[in-house]
Amino acid sequence: MAENTSLDKPPSPFEIIMSCSICQKLISDIYRHPETNSLRDGTDNLIITKLWLTECAHLTCSQHLEGGGPPFHREGEQPKAPCPMCTAERGDRKPKRLYGIRGKADDEHDEAIPGNWFQTPPMDLGPGMEAFRVHTSSDHGWGDLCLICLQQFQYLSLIKYGTMITRRFREALNSREQYKVQLINVTNDRASLEQEMNGLKLRVKDLEETEAKWLRYKKREPSVTHYLSIVSDIAKLVLVEVTYSQY
């Protein structure tokens, strides 16, 4: 079974090398939740195979294969599908043989993959190191054996993992700087809105005071109107009296 590394611990060399070439998901993450709808590889092992080594030495998890997994195949035959990495980088959609990997134990990976491929770092660096031998098909039948050395596979896996993780780290840093600028803009906008809101609160207070004065006047309006009408009558009487007094 694949190593189950805790999220707060750094990944092991085995996990880094046995990571998906496309999304860099570690083998421990790929098998962290085994209850999936991935297709089985035809073995009797209850663990569903979700990591595949292509005959072109690329690692891919099932989700990157067309249809979300390897196509149906006869028992005893290797499943074949276009390599997602070759398709993305070179437009090569030629079906490639897939070799299942569930872990480093002998019964956890396809027997075509040498066991020392799972030794990290490799113990034997001599010229006689075992190579990954797979048949490559051609229009005329079987082609030559494809020899992929262990050092090359692990070295390229490290380069791919380091390159992609560095790219994502830089993208995260750029996003962080953009979020900083957005945060500053939002903070400035908030300060401006708060200032505008305070001004509106003062305006509302003034309007409330004006409304209160108007309501007080409206309440007294009948009395004021009544007294004003009386004053008019009194003014007329005074005017009449003044007129008579002149005679």
Characterize the structure shown.
The longest helix is centred in the C-terminal third of the chain and has 96 residues, at 150-245. The chain has a four-stranded antiparallel β-sheet. A two-stranded antiparallel ribbon has the order 5-6. Strand 5 (131-138) and strand 6 (141-149) form a beta hairpin. By secondary structure, it is an alpha+beta fold. It has a domain at 13-176. The protein has four helices and six strands, in the order H-H-E-E-E-H-E-E-E-H. The protein has helices spanning 13-17, 27-30, 84-90, 150-245; strands at residues 51-54, 59-61, 80-82, 95-101, 131-138, 141-149.
Give short descriptive properties of this protein.
alpha+beta; 4-stranded antiparallel beta sheet; single chain; coiled coil; 247 residues
Brief characterization of the structure:
By secondary structure, the protein is an alpha+beta fold.
Chart the SSEs and their pairings:
Elements: H1 13-17, H2 27-30, E1 51-54, E2 59-61, E3 80-82, H3 84-90, E4 95-101, E5 131-138, E6 141-149, H4 150-245
Antiparallel strand pairs: 1-2, 1-4, 3-4, 5-6
Q: Tell me the number of helical segments per DSSP (H or I, 4 or more residues long).
A: 4
Q: Given the C-alpha coordinates, what overall shape results?
A: rod-shaped
Sheet having the most strands: 4 strands, antiparallel
Low-confidence stretches: 135-145
Task: Report strand %.
Answer: 5-15%
Task: Label the structural class.
Answer: alpha+beta
Number of strands: 6
Cα end-to-end separation = 131 Å
What would the average pLDDT be, to the nearest integer? 80
Could you give the order of strands across the largest sheet? 2-1-4-3
> What percent of residues adopt helix (DSSP H or I)?
40-55%
How are helices and strands ordered from N to C?
A: HHEEEHEEEH
Oligomer: single chain
What would you report as the Rg, rounded to the nearest angstrom? 42 Å
